[in-house]
Structure formats: C-alpha cells, structure tokens
Amino acid sequence: MPNKVLETKNLNAYYGDFQALFEVSIDLFEGEIIAIIGANGAGKSTFMRSVTGLIDRIDNEINYKGLSIKGLRADEIAKKGLAMVPEGRKLFPSLSVEENLLIGGQIKRLGPWKLNTVYELFPDLYDKRNIPSNLLSGGQQQMAAIGRALMSNPDVILFDEISLGLAPIIIKSIYQNLPKVIQKGMSAIIVEQDISKALEISDRVYCLQEGRIALFGESKQLTRQEISKAYFGI
Amino acid sequence: MNKEYEILQSSKVSRASGFIAIFLIIFLFFAPWWAGRADIRLLSEIFLYLSLASLWNLLAGYCGLVSVGQQAFVGLGGYLLFALTIFSGFNPFAAILVSGILGALISLPVAFLIFRLRGAYFAIGTWVVAEVFRLSFAQIQSLGGGSGSSLPVGIVKSIASSKAMRESLTYWMILGLTVFILLSVYLILRSRRGIALIAIRDNELASQSLGINILRSKLFVYVVTAGLTTILGGLIFLQKLRISPDAAFNVNDWTAFVIFIVVIGGIGTIEGPIIGVLVFFILRETLADLGSIYLIMLGFVAIFVMIRAPKGIWGFVSSKYNIELFPLSRKLKEIKGE
C-alpha cells in the first residue's frame, strides 16, 4: 500500500468567528489524485488554503509525510513540497511569463521540473515567455500557473478550481496534460466544480457540503445519484 | 523538443545606457575642477535627493512599504554624525559610515513595531516613529536640545585643510554613495530576491504560497534602506554643518519632496527617480523665487502627472516606446535545439 503523504484529521477552519470547515478528514496517498467537489461556498478553497498555510485559524491536525504542518507559514509549507495552483491563477502581472516560472523555482527543490521541461509540457508558454503574464489568455495563464507550481518540484500539487472561467477546449487540453504532471511521481488534490471531469481524472473523490464531508469514495464506484444528493444536499 | 536556453538580462539600449552612465560618472567626478562652488553644492543636493528617492522607490515601489517617515533616518544620521564626532572623537567620514550600521540596527526594533501595521496604518506608523525620534533628540541638551547645534570648528577643519577641499571631499563621497546606492538597488532588483520583491508587490498571498518569506524579504529591504538613508542623513548635515530637530526630521524636505520625485518620475522603475529628480530641480531652480506659489505649482505638476500618466513620466515613455534603460526583466534566448 502506498504511503500517506497528506492527512487532515477533523480539520476545522475559521474566518474570524465564522467557521468554514467542520471536522474535515481527508487522506492523500503517494501517486494518488483526489478530487474535492462541492457547490459554491462548500469549503473547497478554504480546505486548500488551510492545507497550504494561508488560513491562520485552524483546529486539529494537518500531517504531511507523517509530520504536523499545522501552524507553519505558507512559505515554510511550500518549501516542504506542497505547491498550489490558486483559484484565478494569481500570476504576477509585473513579471514576464518566464519570471513567473522562475519565482516557482526559487525554492530550489531538486526534481525533474525546470524551464525546459515546463516548456516541453506547455509549448505555448515558450512562445510567450517574454511578455507580461497578464497579457496571456485565460488558458495560457492557467498553464503558466501550473508551470510555476511545477517549477518548485513539489511532491503534492493542489489545483484550486482548475477549469474556472476557461473555454471547454482549453479545459480539455489542460486535463489531457495533467496525467503527464502526475506521472512524474506527484500526488494531487483537484478542486473542481465540473463533476464529470473530477470523476474522470481522480482516484477518489470527496464531496463537501457547507464545510462538512457529505460523501467520499472511489471515483469509479460512486453513482451520479449519490453525488447529486451529496452535492446539492437534496 | 530538447532545447537549451540562456537567460539574458540586457539589451543594446541597456548596454548603451550603461556606457553613458559610466562616462557621466567620470565626468561628474571631475566636477570640482570644472564647476563653481555653488554648482558643486547643487550637484551634491541633486545626488542626495536622487539617492533618497531611489531608496524610497525600492521601499514603496517594489516592496509596497509606503513610508512617510524616512526623515527619521535622515535626522538620525545627522545627529549620529554630530554625536560620534563631538563625543567619541570619530573622523566625520568614519562617523557617517558607523552611523549607517547603527541606523540599520536601530531600524530592527522599529520594524518590529511598524511591520504589525498594514497600508495606510503603516504609513502613519512610520511618521509617528519619525516624530518620536524628533522629540527624543530635542531632549538631548548636549546636542543643542530643541534649538540644535553647529559642528565645532575643529571637527570641520579635521575634514580637510581648506574649505574648497572639504566641499570637494564631501561631494565625492556623495557622488560615490549615489553610484553605490543606484547600483545596489539595480543589482538587488535584478537578483532572484528582486523578482521575489516584485512578486510580493503584485500578490502577497500567491508569493507566500510559492515559498517566498514575505517578512524576511521586506525586513531586508527596510533595514538596508534605513542604513543607507542614515548615511545620507550624515552627509546632508556634514554639508550643512548645523543641525536642529526641526531641520533634521523635516517631513517636507526628506519625505514629501522625495515622494514627489518618485511619483512624477515613475514609481517602481529604476529610471523614475532619475527623471523625477531632474524635473524637481528644474522646477525648483526656475520657480523657487516665487515663494509659496512654487509649492502650489509642484502640487499641480504632481496632480497633472498622476492624472495623465499614472505610472509617472518614465512609465509613460517606457510603455509608449517599449524601452528600458536599466532592464530588470529577463529574456530567454534559445541556444541549442532540435
């Protein structure tokens, strides 16, 4: 059985006094892809932000490779090998495409990902490498955001709303490339509103509803009916 | 595809700018032989403001640390020069260098306080710190208290045998420091740390989640800026030979004018403060006789530039003609490929 790389135990997260996550326990194994689905406001992004150290107030444990990362700063967590492709891409508009990629490489973790390999994965980025990142199309920005995260050679990569705001053809292209990313030995968590895409790409799926896990299981074994019930709460 | 790449950081224009800059520095080095004393004083003042503006630009334009309290370190530098020379017998130039180290050290507890504040509160916090410095130095009677004091004649004469030589030495030190500051800012911004600073300015959360230590990056810039501003303060008051709390910690002279220079020149660019300082001194030299109308006109110029060219004069020129005299961005060149 593969090793557990990431584990949250009864995770609670808060924005001020507002509790956004309630006892969320999620496991991620080496080489595995899990999908987190749920309606708007279900807590998917909050979960990602909690794991990557971007939320100050959380309760209970987050373990990465058997060690607690709760209370660590986001940069300390990133250096341990957790990278996030944030919702809305969040590229740095003052920097060119390749500078955005170089920022990802600042951590200097060893691994297969460097400029060459990222450009091989996304040839479009090579052609646009010198232009400011805010001049890229939505799809190219998503590629740059994925490339930037890969440049840190993470062991776990988190994709937050990977297809949000993108044209179907771009989404298809990005999903076609994802197995190439994961094949390099990484584990991944994908937050996705498109249920069919999430089920297609992932090994297991967790469905969040109002900050709680409403359903989880093997992606291929869950029925549409079960998912719809957990997703919409009806 | 199996390609190899080389990262380039220069262009023909930037190399030409570099050569012109070197030529200009050599030309300015010989100013004591071709310029009059009034011109030397004016050039010194221009260089001091250029240095202050470049440091403030690094702080606010690249790190988002909008300080309106940099006069704290200018005044501190001036007072440390007086204190170290009068009470500890330091040579004035050595005192200025030591004051830079002390300024950097003092900035650490200051940073501990003001880094807890964000945005406008940070700006106000820095001003409050500067006022605390001003009020504290006004209490030191041995340095003249509220009315200030002059540098003793013996110390002034220890700098050089003649007045002309003293002014030339001070000018060269100011010129050297200005070159050092511009070069340092440029090299910092071209380094990996520089890209990180720009990334932090663009999006703190995203840069943090990519492994950039925000606090350390900002603290580094704040401490370096404070140390160098303290040195500049020492040089400013070595020229003036007299110090008082109101002159040393003057928000207009050491921060408002500096912000004006950076904003009209182009915040967040290396070239901006250079353009800004030229515009500022052209306006000052031609309009200063008009008294308070001069300050009103400065305000109008600032408002006009902010409306017509929000990125400053250089930002406008740079985006229109796509040129960078001192490029910070990297370009990738394919050197081998299948």
Number of helices of chain A: 9
CATH domain class name of chain B = Mainly Alpha
Oligomer: heterodimer
Measured by DSSP, the beta-strand proportion of chain B falls in under 5%
* Strand order in the sheet with the most strands of chain A: 6-7-8-3-9-10
Round the mean pLDDT of chain B to the nearest integer and report it: 89
Shape call of chain A:
globular
Named at the architecture level, the CATH assignment of chain B is Orthogonal Bundle
Number of helices of chain B: 16
Helicity of chain B, as a percent range? over 70%
Describe this structure in words.
The complex is a heterodimer of chains A (234) and B (338). With 234 residues, chain A is of the alpha/beta class. In chain A, the strands form 2 sheets. A 6-stranded mixed beta sheet of chain A has the order 6-7-8-3-9-10, sandwiched between helices. In chain A, strands 2-1-4-5 form a 4-stranded antiparallel beta sheet, with helices on one face. The mean pLDDT of chain A is 88. Helix content of chain A is 34%, strand content 28%. Chain B is built from 16 helices and 4 strands. Chain B is mainly α and 338 residues long. Chain B has a two-stranded antiparallel ribbon with strand order 1-4. Chain B has a two-stranded antiparallel sheet with strand order 2-3. Chain B has helices at residues 12-29, 31-34, 37-62, 71-88, 92-114, 119-138, 153-159, 163-190, 192-202, 204-208, 214-240, 245-248, 251-265, 271-287, 292-308, 312-321, and strands spanning 4-8, 149-150, 242-243, 331-336. Chain B has a single domain, classed as ABC transporter involved in vitamin B12 uptake, BtuC (Orthogonal Bundle), CATH 1.10.3470. The model of chain B has no long low-confidence stretch (mean pLDDT 89). The longest helix of chain B has 28 residues, at 163-190. The chains are: A alpha/beta (234), B mainly alpha (338). Chain A binds chain B through residues 52-54, 73-75, 77-79, 83-84, 86, 90-96, 98-99, 102-104, 106-107, 115-116, 119-120, 123, 129-130, 148-149, 152, and chain B through 1-5, 7, 192, 195-196, 198-199, 201-203, 205-214, 268, 329-332.
